Amino acid sequence: MLQRAFAAAAITAACVAIPAAAQAATPLSPSGLTVDRLTAPLGLGSARPALGWTLTGDGRNRSQSAYQVVVSQGDNTLWDSGEVNSPASANVPYSGPALESATKYSWKVRVWDETGKVSDWSAPTTLETALLTSTDWTAKWIAAPADDLNLSGAKWIWHEDGTQNMPAMTRYLRATVTLPSAPGTARFLFTVDDEAVVYVNGTQVVDTKTLRDNDENAWQKAQIVDVTSLLKAGANTIAVQVKNRLNGSGAATPGAFIGRLKADNLTFTTGNTWKSSASGPAGWEQPAFDDTTWQAARELATYGSGPWASNVSLPSQPSPYLRKDFTADKTIAQARLYVSALGLYEVHINGQKVGDHVLAPGWTEYTKRVPAQTYDVTDLVRTGDNAIGAILGEGYYAGRLQGGRKWGTNPALLAQLKITYTDGTSTRINSDDSWQVGTGGLRASSIYDGETYDARLDRAGWDQPGFSGGWRNAVLRTETMTIEPDKSPAIRVLKTLEPKTVTTPKAGTTVYDLGQNFAGWARIKATGAAGTQIKLRFGEILNPDGTVYTTNLRSAQQTDTYTLKGGGQETYEARFTYHGFRYVEVTGAALDSLEGRVVSSDLPEFGTFTSSNALVNQIQSAIHWGQWSNFLAVPTDASQRDERLGWTGDIQAFATTGTFNGDAYGYLRQWLQTLRDSQSANGAFPDVAPVTCCGDGVAGWGDAGTVVPFALYKRYGDPRILRENYDAMKRWIAYLQANSSSLIRPNSGYGDWLATDTTNQDFIGTAFFAFSTDLVRQAAQVLGEDADAATYASLYSQIKSAFANRWVRADGTVGSGSQTSYVLALKFGLVPDNLKAAAFNRLADDVARRGNHLSTGFLGTPFLLNVLQDGGRADLAHQLLVQDSYPSWGYMLNRGGTTIWERWDGIRPDGSLQDAGMNSFNHYGLGSIGDWLYDVVGGLAPQEAGYKKILVAPSTGELGAASSAVKTAYGPAKTAWSKDAEGRLTIDVDVPVNARAEVRVPIKDGQAVFESGKPAGEQPGVTYRGTANGVASYDVGSGSYRFLAAVSNTTSVNSGVAGNVPATLALSVGTASLGTLTPGVARDYSAEGTATVTSTAGDAALSVFDPSATATGRLVNGAFALAQPLQVDGKPVGGSSAPTPLHAWLGPVSNSEVKLAFKQSVGANEGLRTGSYAKTLTFTLSTTAP
């Protein structure tokens, strides 16, 4: 039988205040108001957004029955919904007049609870729209005048014996350039197939051997060398040693050199005026060398033709600095800056950087649309003289990417500053050709290659009023893409890391270990003489000699170069590049300090997971760091090499994991727009979005167009994401159907990328065809498209039959017999019912045969552990989770990984490295098991979309404890479970108001389920559903619950020598004081108390409740009560029917002291009555095992 002990304690506080009226029992309280999942958004991009709010209230099983929303513009009510009989408190459509551009609104909500009791109005909150359409923009696109240094008309040249295909050899080239005077500016643009050493007037200016060593296609990247200081009036000599190599297969390849010198307004190109020789005698590179016997160079092709075509990318140019002075002639009420760029931007006003965004405005399919950001710059603009300026980087628009420069070669700016004065008038400062443009310290920037910054070239005051630098006027650009408000969270610096170790592997080289692989850059401080050049090279691992390994970067240089201006300590960090790295190799000078700057899209917090197992926590950390590293402008594959593209297959695999680790709704919603913009006319989704290369229509990659929208809907519950993508999803299915043979997809594609076993591509294609078809069926059901739902249900059934006839055999063998074959067929429902058990057993046998190892790749891994779990082999799933030998997640981490690798064996068991051409150590694809950790191990899954109903069904395996928590649209939800040495399982569950949960508690023979010390089925708010297969199931409403699976009525103490221990259950609680409550000040008051517990039982649980029937859970002062509930240990105090659980013991205790933390929140506008507010609470100590 249950035994209890009770102790009462008084909580008191004194204050002096204005009298307040008595209040009835606490109704629901709305707060946490959101618009399109954003809090008080500035720059909202929708005229008809979705609204949401969270609710708090005492007790259990609380819910909303109706709501009323009022939206106002100034003192005028724009929309009053009236009382709407609906439980909806998330994704509630705004149904008033369309919101206008660049307008600020306020709104509030009140709700009716399950009994019809109405709440107070929420505190009002604001929303402010962006410029919603392109027609709202009066600013013009502007840019620096285009640089005419290019390769047009230049010739690919070689020695006279040359052909476009030739064996490996070295040849020598010379040219004489005559100048009328020493140039003010001179630059030499060139590239070579394969390598070159270039001299100007006898001085070596560049050697490309290292570039060619790292990249067979290094010729595709031209270089520019500033040779101003090396040229003089009169004759000048350019000398080049060129070398052609055999390719990796030992075959002859084309070899040639091409270039153009521009000295002030004079240009000189490669051609037959150059001389050549098969040998290079001593001094051949010097101006005085006699080359009269050398032959004319042979012209192999004009740029744009031959085997090289137009595939040479020009290097980054000095960043344009744009500026304009303006005057604000009245008192300023507010100022807003609306800005975008083709490329990347950083805006300054009066010498101050605007906002904390980096790498803005992001990356889209620029031919269709570009995002724009909104900033509140009221504090930066002043009455009188002002200046606005912007620095531009090439970024994704004009920079070197895989596939070349697809969109443009010259970045551009669009900026519109609106200043509103206190008299109600306003003025605009628009980007136009009155802006001035020049250059400064930022000499080059490239996403792949890094930044070059020369602080000696800083232009002091360029972003201040009154600057006069002799700059040119900007030029106007005509652009036709749509300008849309940014829906994605800003990219920001999220963390700063200090070095773990600093080493000197060789003289002049220092290596900093930040201890973590991540995306971002370094911030350095250095002191030195003007002209001192510091190079920062970034990499993921080290060479055996302790230097930074860079071969897996392929052609990406990942190098930042900073030249000191001298005169004191200088600070530098990059603007328009980012790197994937753990280590930084520094040469050129010693640093005063170096820090790592972690950069990612600043997703709002959403989910957290932890467990009692250190390896599992490491896996979760590696997954999350991989997400941070690859959730920048778009979801990418890798963060370091010359790729970093929006590979659709990677995010298709990772979406259900990524939507937990952060609120990715806005981020992926915007990327899905880019995916739709990139969809082919025939319905095929591309391999990468935005499209820079590669193909489309590939199984598991193109399916991102169906998988990602549905993952967003399931996690966040907003059906708009399905509506926005629905037509594109349908076109994808139509494409698959049209390009299949009897519903069997072609044997093409990437397959189960980087698996250790082989799965046929037509098998994978057909399986994903079925999967996507079923997702579109489900989307149709959600959207009320019933006819479509029936059509896709029928199509799915037909694909399933075709698949089973082709690949499922009578003995349960599926496809090639690979793990991925079984996983996809079982997960997608493609195995006939009578063969499911046989197929599943074959999967389980294969895992066991491999010594509890997996063999899956990018497409099979996301589903593997879920399929094992669902099939009844959770033990195998857990064994794979904690496996630490190859191939496994633990293997990566034991080899030094801090993020998930691209390959299972990026570092092989023998210590050697995998193929550097495809060997990223920061690649989230194989980390796609995260959702199994969070939903299944943590036991917190969205049973209904958006966690309207939660499934609490933890899979414990050999773990001792785990916890998952999410910030749902209804409020925080959490599970935390633990097991004691005797196998008793405790599950703590927090369900937000207006949501429900199904709790499944695993039980052993003889165990019963208790909740907060009572049989679970007898507790208020808990409904027993039944027991099956060793699992007891309960439905619960909102509130906090503690479920315990334990044997009841079996506790006794026997003594042979020492005698019996009497059953003892004792509790004492002291009094706590909150002190003086101050009226008119919003503040949290706290106090600490102590409970002393003695229990000889096998378990004990401490809880608290308010026995009062009035103002339950709130401090009272006569007829007056505080508005907010009293909290104990962070939980509101409930009534006698719903005690608040505080602490539990899993064994006997004597005089155990428990600290009790009391907290009382008081609002700034809350009326307080003179006198003492107090409440007597009842603390209960209970046991299931007396």
Explain this structure to me?
By secondary structure, the chain is α+β, with helices and mostly antiparallel strands. It folds into seven domains: 3-17 and 1062-1183, Immunoglobulin-like; 29-129, Sandwich (Immunoglobulin-like), CATH 2.60.40.10; 155-308, Jelly Rolls, CATH 2.60.120; 317-488, Galactose-binding domain-like (Jelly Rolls); 492-601, Galactose-binding domain-like (Jelly Rolls); 607-934, Glycosyltransferase (Alpha/alpha barrel); 944-1047, Sandwich (Maltose phosphorylase, domain 3). The strands form 14 sheets. Strands 32, 33, 37, 38, 39, 40, 41, 42, 43 and 44 form a ten-stranded mixed sheet that branches. Strands 45-48-49-50-56-52-53 form a seven-stranded antiparallel sheet. The protein is globular and about 110 Å long. It starts with a strand and ends with a strand.
- CATH 2nd-level architecture of the largest domain: Alpha/alpha barrel
> Do you know the CATH topology of the largest domain?
Glycosyltransferase
Helix share, percent: 10-25%
Q: How much of the sequence is in beta strands?
A: 35-45%
Organism: Solirubrobacter phytolaccae
Domain Alpha-L-rhamnosidase six-hairpin glycosidase: 605-937
EC number: 3.2.1.40
Domain Alpha-L-rhamnosidase concanavalin-like: 506-598
Key phrases:
alpha+beta; Jelly Rolls; 7 domains; 7-stranded antiparallel β-sheet; 15 helices; disordered N terminus; Bac_rhamnosid6H; EC 3.2.1.40; alpha-L-rhamnosidase
In short:
This protein is α+β, with helices and mostly antiparallel strands and 1186 residues long.
List the helices and strands and how they pair.
Elements: E1 3-15, E2 29-35, E3 42-44, E4 50-56, E5 64-73, E6 76-80, E7 92-93, E8 104-113, E9 125-129, E10 141-143, E11 155-158, E12 169-179, E13 186-193, E14 195-200, E15 203-207, H1 209-214, E16 223-226, E17 234-244, E18 256-263, E19 266-269, E20 275-277, E21 295-296, E22 298-302, E23 321-328, E24 332-342, E25 344-349, E26 352-353, E27 369-376, E28 384-393, H2 395-398, E29 412-421, E30 426-430, E31 436-438, E32 442-446, E33 450-454, E34 472-473, E35 475-477, E36 482-485, E37 491-497, E38 501-506, E39 509-526, E40 533-539, E41 559-563, E42 570-573, E43 579-587, E44 593-601, E45 607-611, H3 614-630, H4 648-661, H5 665-678, H6 704-716, H7 720-738, H8 761-782, H9 786-807, H10 819-827, H11 836-849, H12 861-870, H13 874-882, H14 889-894, H15 930-937, E46 941-942, E47 949-952, E48 961-968, E49 971-979, E50 985-991, E51 996-1002, E52 1007-1011, E53 1014-1015, E54 1022-1028, E55 1031-1036, E56 1039-1047, E57 1065-1069, E58 1072-1077, E59 1083-1095, E60 1100-1106, E61 1116-1117, E62 1120-1121, E63 1127-1128, E64 1131-1132, E65 1134-1135, ...
Parallel strand pairs: 1-58, 3-9, 27-36, 33-41, 47-51, 60-65
Antiparallel strand pairs: 1-68, 2-4, 4-7, 5-6, 5-8, 8-9, 10-35, 11-22, 12-17, 12-20, 13-16, 13-18, 14-15, 14-17, 18-19, 20-21, 23-28, 23-31, 24-27, 24-29, 25-26, 25-28, 29-30, 31-34, 32-33, 37-44, 38-39, 39-42, 39-43, 39-44, 40-41, 40-43, 45-48, 46-47, 48-49, 49-50, 50-56, 51-55, 52-53, 52-56, ...
Helix pairs in contact: 4-6, 4-15, 5-6, 6-7, 7-8, 8-9, 10-11, 10-12, 12-13
Protein name: alpha-L-rhamnosidase
GO molecular function, one term: alpha-L-rhamnosidase activity
Domain Alpha-L-rhamnosidase C-terminal: 939-1009
